[in-house]
Amino acid sequence: MTSVARSASPASAPSLIRRFRLIGFSLIGIAVYFLILRLMLGNTGTATQQVANALTLGAIYALVALGYTMVYGIIELINFAHGDVFMVGSFVALWTVTSDPWFQAIGLHQTGTVTALPLLALYLLVMFAVSMTVVGLLNVTIERLAYRPLRHAPRVAPLITAIGVSLILQNVIQIIVGTGDRPSPKIIPQDAFPFLGAEIRFVNVFIVVTALILMYILTLFVGRTRLGRAMRATAQDQQAAQLMGVDLNQTIAITFLIGGALAGAAGVFQSQYFGFVRFDLGFNAGLKAFTAAVLGGIGNLTGAVLGGFLIAFVEVFAAANGQQRWSQAIVFVVLITVLVFRPAGLLGQQIGERA
Amino acid sequence: MTALRGRLAGNPTIDQVRSFASAHRSLAIVAAMVVAGLILPILAQVPPFSGFQSLDVWIGGFSNAGVFVLLALGLNIVVGLAGLLDLGYAAFFAIGAYAYAYGSSPFSGQHFPFILMLMVGALVAATFGVLLGAPTLRLRGDYLAIVTLGFGEIVPIVFLNSDKYTQGTNGIGGLYKPEIPGVEFTLLNPWPFYVLMLVIVTIVMVLIYRVQESRIGRAWMAIREDELAAASNGLNTVTTKLLAFALGASTAGFAGVFNAAKLTLVSPDQFGSTVSFAILAMVVLGGMGNIWGVALGAFVIYTIQIVILKQLNAFFGDNHIPILQDINFVQYQFLLYGLALVLMMLFRPEGLFPSQRRKRELRAHDAAATESEAVAAMDQA
Amino acid sequence: MKLRQVGAIAGIGVLVLAGCNQGGTSGGGSKGTVNIAIELPQQGSEKAASDPIINGIKLAVKDAGGVAGNYKIEIPNSVIYDDAKDGAHDPQTGAQNMSAIAANANVIAVIGPLNSSVAKVQIPISNEAGLLQCSPANTNEGLTKPEFGALDIRKANPNKINYVRVVTTDDNQGPAAAKYILEVLKKTKVYIIDDTETFGKGISDNFQKYLEANGGTVVARDGVPKTTTDYSAILTAAKAKGPEAIYFGGVTATGGARILKAAVAAGMADVPYIGPDGIYDGSGATKDSFLNLAGDDAKNAFATAAAVGDFPGRADFEAKFKAEYNTAPTGYSATGYACAQVVIDAIKRAGDAANMGELREKVRAAAVDPSINYTSVIGAFKFDANGDTSQKIISFYGYDATAKDWAFKSQLDFAK
User: Fold this and answer.
1) Where does C2-168+314-385 sit in CATH, by number?
2) Would you call C102 an interface residue with chain B, using a CB distance cutoff of 8 Å?
3) C170-305+394-413 — its CATH code?
4) B143 contacts: CB under 8 Å, gap ≥ 6
5) Are A160 and B147 within 8 A, CB to CB?
6) Which residues of B touch A291 (CB under 8 A)?
7) Considering B149, B177, B376, C339, which has the largest number of Cβ atoms within 10 A of its Cβ?
8) What is the pLDDT of residues B154-173, one digit of tens each?
9) What is the count of structural domains for chain A?
């Protein structure tokens, strides 16, 4: 089997300049997008609203894409089941807020919005904690049972296993909850504040801000901690990392744990923003998130985030112009085009073959 | 299985048959298919199978299973022989089917003969295979998988949204049935379709076998095992891979044309990603690389899905067996697929009916595993 | 040649043999037992739609005493077919089932399917076999009306129709909703959103045609497949165009309730939301129904139903159904019951026949006879020359917040 060297280093600690550049470019990008929309739609309020829609959707995609890209970066596996663990996360979030026995014991299970801020904060905290933990652990378990034994098998084997795991997750959930939508109470008040002609809901801001915070924490972890360094080393060269004393199994497990936790957080967003969860959410979300990861440069954390937002921008743009029914096809065309002309993705480095 | 083979090996007649079969493989395939074609109707009339459904229904089911056998054979060329993971294979199936709809329906106003349309459908599908493959085949395996998945999603969406050309979600109906001089194809008589399917499958099998044993087949094997080494030896990997794609796609084209003629309707919802994954499961479970394994796997899985699971439900329900009667096996089928895929990959990646070569390849990873463990052990020491 | 002869002989042989076996079986029907086959999807979300239909059919047979004319009627499990594969209706499986049903010598007629796309592949088969097929739910006009291509699917016997349905077609239901919006709600600017599937898109097309021809405007139209999760972008875009009503073409399973909730979240809570009978599927208490999923967001929701909403004997039917099955009937239970009534009545009028083949033909001819007036639980109707019901009544329902259920508003008779 040929091994492929990658000179891309996933998220080395960004210097201050790089960080500012990143933020700067992002803001410019958003502004450009807004202007284009404004021109096409002729209405500032609508354009602003669409930008808000795109940012929120992008945040969710970005979180799921991060999980994909981290796992791929470290063991070169497209984890087909990642979208489905996100789906499981959304169900866990739903369950926490409606049926969690601890909550029920203190008479707190919710079916509507919560206006008292401390209580709301408590609920959200618990939802995130439970969902992220459960999905993180689920991901680790899957890795341990289904992927670790195949670590040295030909690439096609764990891919197929991943498809199998995806089917299992979907079907188990389907058997438990049925095939229809399960409505989720939105506990965040739906109030909105006016901004540039549009009514931006607090939940949109919440999602984007929380996602950015989570991503920042991730950057710190990967860049500054020993475990993070181990992850980066393993992604660069597995054997060399092992020779340097990195525990391969533990590192991979941590990667899956974090990727799963991020997907769990995205699951909370799904239940709170869209208000429903369904057993087959995972396939589509996973596909789009994976496209985002590839678009940004697989293995590259910043790339995954960038890709997530870009994909959301493309989707919203298509929808805003009445082409919603083509949006899925458009996303795939974007993917194929990127892969054909720049397989490393937007932020990835060119990869070479090494004997 | 090997023990049986060992015991049989001693027998002189069996040896004669086997050596003859090895020497004249194409003939052997034809003979085997003839035998299978004769045995299946007989088997279908034997209890308990005769109790499940009537003979006509079995024969109709065999023809439908035959479509999936064809699809599995075609995907096998791409995944099993050339080692390229294609996750959107149903797109070519759709292209073949719609090609037939354009060639032979009241909607298009054309009525070309079925045999001609078989070729046309295969050709059109192959063309799209090349069109898809040309820019993407130089990508790494995983990326190629995702690109094919994307293609598999895009094609039905295009058919769905292009109302003017494809009647969108309503599909194109009233397709003409096959005409073969001397045989009348009706919708109620399953036998002509059955025999036609047998003929098509046999021809495709012989073709695939021939190609597999030719230089192209060996080139595929080389690429599958070590692409860099193959390229270093002067093999044009891109052309070779393109050929695999084209041949795989054309087989799906055959299946598409046959299916369209039998169903007399094409519609976008027949070609979703579930179909692609089902065929992939058939190839994987049957034994990637092994023509017979794949064919058998596809046949068995289709029959289980359509007949056996429902019969299990009926059986347990009617006899009121305590826990099992409450399980709706049909509802659980994807769980079973998923489990089968995972367990297969973990314990028997070469599939149920493996090709010996593939088995050696897939088991080779055990050697690599020990090496890595040694490295890890060094660290612990 | 040989194959055809073998096949034909086998087929006729089977039917003749079955005919021979008819006499001498036990029971009240002196000429033997016949089966009515049922063909519906029974996996996933469609199972919830199909089960009430099966119950309605069985209730009709029970109410007729299990007898029609000189024949006993039975519906054993072996003639209840499921056309679902991989969790949803599958045309190929439907075709396979119809071949099996046609080949089954005990089957006199078939009731089903649920989905128009399955009917499209089944009608060629049942038409060739001359087998009576009654659908309680198909609304696509292309299944019966020649001007929409129906002749292509009954090629074998274009003048001996065998397919009838007791619900009226989308080219009535769609325009009815448009009429309601224009005349009753008095709105003209509509945003259409359909689920890109056969039923949803078809009915939206019909809706749009009528609306635009009668003074309304379509401010925007979007097609959203059922796998969509994020509707915020298209709803924001739609809202900017100032729609006065939203028309959803589709069923609950493809997003009816989701889209309503998203529309409310996008700030269009006061815009009336109208959908076809795909969202008219039970009260707020019924699991997975539109009202159950939409909750109080449905306060401005309306639904049309392609069948009579208010008919004499409806209360009776509901009471009987509840008594038998412990659950309230859905709209389709009544149409299933009506189809069974049609079949039973046809068998009565067909009289006797020497063998099954002849009996099937007699029953078919008796059923599709345009001069027959049927009295059923959904009212009185006749079949026209294409097998469509004369009852072109569309019922309108609005949301009743106190009862958390659909409340009947009015009816429109397109036949007039």
Assistant:
1) 3.40.50.2300
2) yes
3) 3.40.50.2300
4) A294, A339, A343, B136
5) no
6) 146, 150
7) C339
8) 999 999 888 888 888 888 88
9) 1
